């Protein structure tokens, strides 16, 4: 029996639980949700979604795909949850769903994990002061030194090369993969967090996983500078000269195809993206606004460098929409489809 993909349902006050239910209402699903079955039943009832929530023992196989049925490996809420209302009491519940997913993936009982959004702030407020996101939590849970966050628009999930039509003047038609050199940290700490060693590790993971998971044989990666105009020859910052360029030169000697460091403002234009397989941005809000402008709601977030396959949605908890049934489940569907593909490739390597 094939191990199922598991979908952690995320922050119980957010849209995660209802997105899982919406997909189960529309399609015959063969993945297993991890979360509180009573929460899911209550949300289904409130939203008028005709979905039977079936409890399965953790690690056990899916009972078989059928539309309007959602299989769940149960984790109990710490207290009842209202849509849109955060509670620190349920932070440990959210983390327990992740721990179950990791343990079952590493034990071979799950083939990949997909995460619905959690709320980073409420988990920190609950006392997990070092928590910054799934990406870093999974890195530590899996005991690896470095991981890479990459988001990809749906159209960039498969196929060899991100090929921009040079005559296109809109980003909307361009498949994009955007990876980050740093993830969740205050902007004022970004420059200090960049190092030659870290950047080299990130580029090696990115190049390897573009090949392993996306079938790109010799990936070409465009690397952003950190500073305006990529530092303007040192007049607007020295990170390009002291950190980024030496790493790129070293890795080019090994045969990696790396462009840059390039000014980030013009890198994200059709001509510069032509033939590029992924962009490496130096920080979260340098790269992700472009990705989201290009394909918000139709993209997936992938953690590269883990010993398991993990994908996620491209959005957050959307507390403003929770409980209304109006949020789009499309990104979750994209993330699940990608996890299917990645899961089989992780098993091969
Ligand atoms: N993978 C994850 O667990 C992620 C978690 N977050 C967390 O989510 C929380 C809220 O973050 P925000 O920055 O407010 O971003 P957000 O994505 O939750 O909301 C931004 C805007 O997008 C809308 N939106 C989000 N998802 C949507 C969907 N599926 N369909 C339609 N509209 C949607 C929201 O209504 C809101 O107007 C934060 O704690 C953040 O850290 C954010 C991104 C990813
Ligand atoms: N904006 C993407 C993001 O914050 C993803 O966070 P996470 O998957 O590490 O929780």
TrEMBL record:
Lineage: superkingdom: Bacteria
Catalytic reactions on record: 4-(phosphooxy)-L-threonine + NAD(+) = 3-amino-2-oxopropyl phosphate + CO2 + NADH
Record carries keyword Chaperone: no
Cofactor(s) listed: Zn(2+); Mg(2+); Co(2+)
Main location: cytoplasm
EC number(s) given by UniProt: 1.1.1.262
HAMAP family on file: PdxA
Protein function: Catalyzes the NAD(P)-dependent oxidation of 4-(phosphooxy)-L-threonine (HTP) into 2-amino-3-oxo-4-(phosphooxy)butyric acid which spontaneously decarboxylates to form 3-amino-2-oxopropyl phosphate (AHAP).
PANTHER family to which the protein is assigned, alphabetical: 4-HYDROXYTHREONINE-4-PHOSPHATE DEHYDROGENASE
Family named by the database record: Belongs to the PdxA family.
Protein's recorded name: 4-hydroxythreonine-4-phosphate dehydrogenase
């Amino acid at each position: 029996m094939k191990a199922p993909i598991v979908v952690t349902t995320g922050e119980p006050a957010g849209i995660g639980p209802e997105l899982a239910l919406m997909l189960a209402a529309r399609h015959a699903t063969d993945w297993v949700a991890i979360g509180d079955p009573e929460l899911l039943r209550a949300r289904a009832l409130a939203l008028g979604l005709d979905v039977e929530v079936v409890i399965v023992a953790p690690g056990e196989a899916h009972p078989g795909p059928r539309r309007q049925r959602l299989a769940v490996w149960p984790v109990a809420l710490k207290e009842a949850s209202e849509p849109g209302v955060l509670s620190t009491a349920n932070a440990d519940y959210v983390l327990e769903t992740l721990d179950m997913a990791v343990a079952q993936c590493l034990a071979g009982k799950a083939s990949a994990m997909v995460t619905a959004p959690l709320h980073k702030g409420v988990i920190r407020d609950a006392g997990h002061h070092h928590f910054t996101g799934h990406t870093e939590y999974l890195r530590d849970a899996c005991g690896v030194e470095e991981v890479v966050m990459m988001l990809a628009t749906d159209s960039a999930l498969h196929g060899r090369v991100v090929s921009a039509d040079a005559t296109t003047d809109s980003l909307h038609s361009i498949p994009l993969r955007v990876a980050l050199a740093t993830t969740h940290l205050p902007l004022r700490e970004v420059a200090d967090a960049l190092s030659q060693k870290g950047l080299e590790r990130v580029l090696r993971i990115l190049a390897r996983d573009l090949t392993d998971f996306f079938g790109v044989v010799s990936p070409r990666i465009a690397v952003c500078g950190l500073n305006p105009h990529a530092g303007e020859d040192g007049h607007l910052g020295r990170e390009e000269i002291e950190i980024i360029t030496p790493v790129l030169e070293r890795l080019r000697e090994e045969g990696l195809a790396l462009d840059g460091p390039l000014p980030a403002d013009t890198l994200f234009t059709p001509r510069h993206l032509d033939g590029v397989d992924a962009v490496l941005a130096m920080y979260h809000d340098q790269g992700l606004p472009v990705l989201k402008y290009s394909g918000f709601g139709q993209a997936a977030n992938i953690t590269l460098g883990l010993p398991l396959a993990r994908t996620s949605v491209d959005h957050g908890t959307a507390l403003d929409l929770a409980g209304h049934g109006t949020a789009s489940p499309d990104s979750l569907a994209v993330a699940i489809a990608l996890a299917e593909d990645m899961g089989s490739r992780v098993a091969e390597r």
